[in-house]
């Protein structure tokens, strides 16, 4: 029976593949496929939950496949089912049914009807990857899929300025959570010397105490709390949630009202056996949750838009769930999750009708409010709520602006000869690190730090560059050469197949993206990154291909580079703090730079006047 866990992922993923390559774009055909999928999804989730309860509520696990295995590393798909999975899967199936049914009529005659359901089906597969994950590797696959689906739905109205801008803002926060989760996987591997299952986390905690590696355990917990706080829009990362409401109302309901925004709570529940005895971790989670509950409530009470009110209200409730998780009230958390998910979904789905009613009511029954004296404290809190406590401004000023400034300091890289020179140097180090082994103390050498610093400098330049998209794209590929070379010089030996895994995904992704950019450049010889071009109007298929190349270049689980990247992390030792920080920053800004090119060239208002141009601001 445990083999049937595969159906949770297979059903929505197969439906996604069929809908993606199905040439019939009629709403009726797509509707039948989605209707069959959502009914089958409910039957499987409810039937399995009933069978699980009849058999004594015992956790169920199943190893789906092993992609790669060595003496020190195992990359395997591991599925796991317990009471947390049962609640999240049943609630997810019911909400998927409701939202998909609503969207069939809500998205009627929308130009992106097929694209919308493609993304929703892929999200359902990614969501099940997360809630059924039995180890960090499986969870991370779903984590990445969900992030990309969220990005695509926020930027669903891709010819407008604000959806595109806010999609990039959301993916920026998501990438921080991705890298944090990778760092948790990396340190957990060094702590346990194996790829551990979630069912063995309590043993890992005991091992950390017995071996005196409490600092490593504390680092892992911090790297788990951070992505949980980001994904669930907790302080100070709350501001991305209302910006994510730029997509269709039905996608906002299933993503930011019900399922996606609660993934941070799921991560804390799943990893609770590891940090349950750490008092400081509980206090940190309680403080984050309490601060979010208070601040988000104050913001929600004064916001003028209904979606923003619902977004901050949901964040406030999730803050209370964080407190409940830290206190160990797990069944209360699951009940709270179910109630909040259904409530926010309902509120978002009926919000257009409610707004229409309120506008009508105000038009015919408006009465001027009475003036009341307001204290200075109340006025201050009101203004802070209107300005969302400056969370967005603070994150931009103190998180992103310094890196943009740093990238601009490498302006000499934009000269005509520099890409070729840097590429030759990168290839030389890559070949030298693979073929010639020097007699150097690998862990203590400054060479890996130098190479990783060069990789980060090149990436930050591409991140801040406003010139040719082809040059920025080329620099992103060159940065991978230095990144691989740094790892090669940091390890005494690396299996050739592991390098092949990484390179086999990066090179095709770069060549495909290079082809797409040159195809766009041939139109009017203008692909500068100082504006939005909106070429998705004329080159929709090319834009889709470039999306695949972008996610392939950053190690998304569509190529073997995803496995290679995970393996490469294991060759950075637990005491190399500077090297891992440089590597984490490199992986963070590679994705942001690649998506920035995608958005600037293919999305946003079209620069040609013979196309409809949406207003800059809504």
Automatic annotation (TrEMBL):
Question: Which BP terms from GO are recorded?
Answer: ATP synthesis coupled electron transport; electron transport coupled proton transport
GO MF terms, alphabetically ordered: NADH dehydrogenase (ubiquinone) activity; NADH dehydrogenase activity
- Keywords on record: Membrane, Transmembrane, Transmembrane helix
Q: What is its main location?
A: membrane
Q: Name one GO cellular component term.
A: endomembrane system
Q: Where does it reside?
A: Endomembrane system; Membrane
Q: Where is the NADH-Ubiquinone oxidoreductase (complex I) chain 5 N-terminal domain?
A: 69-117
The reply to whether Manganese figures as a keyword in the UniProt entry is no
Annotated InterPro entries: ND/Mrp_TM (IPR001750), NU5C-like (IPR003945), Proton_antipo_N (IPR001516)
**Top-level taxon of the source organism:** Bacteria
| Topology of the protein relative to the lipid bilayer | Multi-pass membrane protein
Membrane-crossing residue ranges in chain numbering: 6-24, 36-54, 84-103, 115-134, 140-158, 208-230, 251-269, 281-300, 312-335, 417-434, 446-465, 472-493, 499-517, 544-565, 577-599
Boundaries of each NADH:quinone oxidoreductase/Mrp antiporter transmembrane domain copy? 134-383
| Pfam families the record matches | Proton_antipo_M, Proton_antipo_N
Q: What is this protein called?
A: NADH-quinone oxidoreductase subunit L
Organism of provenance: Lacibacter sediminis
């Amino acid at each position: 029976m445990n083999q049937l866990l595969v159906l949770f992922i297979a059903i929505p993923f197969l439906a996604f593949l069929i809908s993606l390559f199905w040439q019939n774009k009629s709403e009726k055909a797509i509707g039948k496929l989605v209707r069959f999928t959502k009914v089958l999804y409910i039957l499987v989730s409810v039937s399995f939950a009933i069978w699980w309860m009849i058999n004594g509520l015992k956790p169920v696990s199943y190893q789906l496949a092993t992609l790669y295995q060595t003496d020190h590393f195992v990359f395997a798909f591991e599925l796991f089912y317990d009471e947390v999975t049962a609640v999240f899967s049943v609630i997810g199936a019911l909400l998927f049914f409701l939202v998909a049914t609503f969207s069939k009529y809500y998205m009627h005659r929308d130009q992106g009807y097929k694209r919308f359901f493609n993304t929703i089906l892929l999200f359902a597969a990614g969501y099940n990857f997360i809630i059924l994950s039995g180890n960090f590797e499986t969870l991370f696959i779903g984590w990445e899929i969900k992030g990309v689906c969220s990005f695509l739905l926020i930027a669903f109205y891709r010819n407008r300025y604000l959806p595109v801008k806010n999609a990039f803002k959301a993916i920026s926060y998501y990438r921080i959570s991705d890298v944090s989760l990778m760092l948790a996987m990396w340190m957990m591997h060094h702590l346990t010397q194996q790829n551990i299952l979630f069912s063995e986390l309590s043993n890992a905690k005991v091992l950390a105490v017995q071996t005196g590696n409490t600092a490593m355990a504390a680092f892992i917990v911090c790297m788990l709390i951070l992505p949980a706080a980001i994904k669930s829009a907790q302080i100070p990362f709350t501001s991305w949630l209302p910006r994510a409401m730029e997509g269709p109302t039905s996608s906002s309901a299933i993503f930011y009202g019900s399922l996606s925004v609660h993934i941070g709570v799921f991560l804390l529940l799943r990893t609770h056996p590891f940090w349950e005895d750490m008092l400081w971790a509980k206090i940190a989670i309680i403080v984050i949750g309490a601060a979010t509950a208070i601040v988000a409530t104050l913001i929600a009470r004064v916001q003028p838009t209904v979606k923003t009110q619902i977004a901050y209200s949901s964040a406030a409730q999730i803050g209370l769930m964080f407190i409940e998780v830290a206190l160990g009230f797990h069944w209360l958390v699951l009940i709270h999750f179910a109630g909040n998910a259904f409530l926010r979904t309902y509120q978002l789905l009926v919000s257009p009708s409610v707004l229409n009613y309120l506008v009508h009511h105000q038009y015919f029954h408006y009465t001027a409010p009475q003036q009341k004296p307001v204290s200075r404290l109340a006025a201050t809190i009101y203004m802070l709520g209107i300005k969302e406590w400056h969370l967005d401004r603070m994150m931009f000023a103190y998180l992103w602006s310094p890196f943009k400034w740093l990238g601009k300091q490498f302006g000499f890289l934009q000269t005509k000869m520099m890409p070729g020179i840097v590429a030759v140097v990168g290839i030389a180090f890559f070949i030298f690190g693979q073929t010639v082994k020097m007699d150097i103390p690998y862990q203590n050498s400054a060479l890996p730090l130098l190479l990783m610093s060069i990789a980060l400098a090149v990436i930050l330049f591409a991140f801040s560059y406003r010139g040719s998209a082809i040059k920025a794209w080329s620099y992103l590929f060159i940065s991978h050469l230095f990144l691989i070379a740094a790892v090669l010089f940091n390890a005494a030996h690396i299996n050739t197949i592991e390098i092949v895994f990484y390179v086999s995904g990066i090179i095709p992704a770069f060549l495909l993206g290079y082809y797409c950019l040159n195809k766009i450049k041939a139109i009017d010889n203008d692909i500068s990154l100082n504006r939005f071009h909106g070429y998705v109007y004329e080159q929709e298929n090319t834009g889709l291909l470039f999306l695949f190349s972008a996610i392939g270049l950053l190690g998304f689980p569509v190529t073997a580079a995803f496995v290679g990247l995970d393996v490469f992390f294991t060759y950075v030792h637990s005491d190399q703090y500077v090297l891992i920080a440089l590597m984490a920053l490199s992986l963070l800004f590679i994705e942001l730079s690649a998506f920035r090119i995608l958005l600037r060239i293919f999305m946003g208002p079209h620069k040609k006047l013979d196309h409809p141009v949406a207003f800059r601001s809504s």
